[in-house]
Each structure stands twice: as C-alpha cells, then as structure tokens.
Amino acid sequence: MFNIIAAESEVNILRLPLDELIIGTLAFGIVFFALAKFAFPAISKTLETRADAIEGGLARAENSQAEAAAMLEQYRAQLADARGEAASIRVEAQAEKTVMIESARGEAAAAAASVTERAQAQIEAERSQAMASLRRDVSELALTLAGKVVGESLTDDARARASVDRFIADLEVEAAK
C-alpha cells in the first residue's frame, strides 16, 4: 500500500493529459477557423457599414446645419431688404402725399381766385349797370326839375341832357377825391 500511495503521490496535478490537449487545440482551431471565415467578415462589414452610416449622418447633419445657417442669413438679408423697401415706399408715399396736398391747395387757390375774379367782374358789371341806371334817373329828375323851374319841358333837348350828364360827371369826380 505504501507503493500505491507513493505512486499516487508522484502524480503531478499541474500536468495536462496529452490527449485532452490535442482535442482542445483541434476544437479551438476549428471554431477559430469557422469564426474567421464566416462570422468575423460579417461583423467587420456590419461595423464598417455602421461607422459609414454614423459618419454620413454627421456629414449630412453638418451640411443641413450649414444650409440652415445660409438660409437664415438669406432670410435675414431679405427681411432687411423688405424693411428698407418698406421705408422707401413710406418716404415716397409721404412725398406723393405732400405733392398731392400742394396740388390740391394750388387748384383750390386757383378755383377761389377764379370765383373771386368772376364775382368781382359781376359786381363791377352790376355797379356799372347801376351807375348808368342811376345817371339816367338823376338826369331825368334833373331835367324834370329844371323844366318845372323854367316852366317848359327840357326832355327833348340834347344840349340840356349833355349839361346834366357833365354836371353828374363832375359830381362823381369830386366824390372820388
């Protein structure tokens, strides 16, 4: 028994059995070969596709952001142009308004002057007509009075009428002074 114990005590627990080592190495090689042949290329391809998609997405996002910034700048420029145009339209409208007001004032002044001129012409015509009528009436009254004083009718005599007209003209000149 002692030999069995001694034989067993000589067994090294760290030593691997050679047949298990060969089978394990072959199995590892087969699995590694299968993985290297089929799985690793598909995994690599998937990772590359995913990396390209991420990089492309980032590039598209950067492009979109740059386009958005350009469009924003263009919008701001158009807005500034529109504001400037609106301001110039307001200024132009104000100038047109001023011109229209001045034109209307000029037309109103011309119309007023025309009405005043016509009224003055009418007044002058009526005044001349009234003066002529008044001269006739005064002349007839003077001749009638002179006829009563003299005792004869003086209405037929042209000289008497000329004397009365001269007298009235002298009176008017004196009244105008």
Condensed summary:
With 177 residues, this protein is mostly helical.
Word description of this protein:
- With 177 residues, this protein is mainly α.
- The chain has one domain.
- The chain contains three helices and no strands.
- The protein has helices at 2-9, 18-150, 158-176.
- Helix 2 crosses helix 3 (158-176).
- The chain is rod-shaped and about 200 Å long.
Shape: rod-shaped
Helix/strand class: mainly alpha
- The number of domains is 1
Strand content: under 5%
What average pLDDT do the residues reach? Answer: 85
Distance between the termini: 182 Å
Biggest beta-sheet profile: none
The tally of strands reads: 0
Helix content: over 70%
List the secondary-structure elements in sequence, H or E.
HHH
Number of helices: 3
Uncertain regions spanning at least 5 consecutive residues? none
Radius of gyration: 66 Å
Q: Key features?
A:
mainly alpha; 3 helices; 177 residues; rod-shaped
Topology:
Blueprint: H1 2-9, H2 18-150, H3 158-176
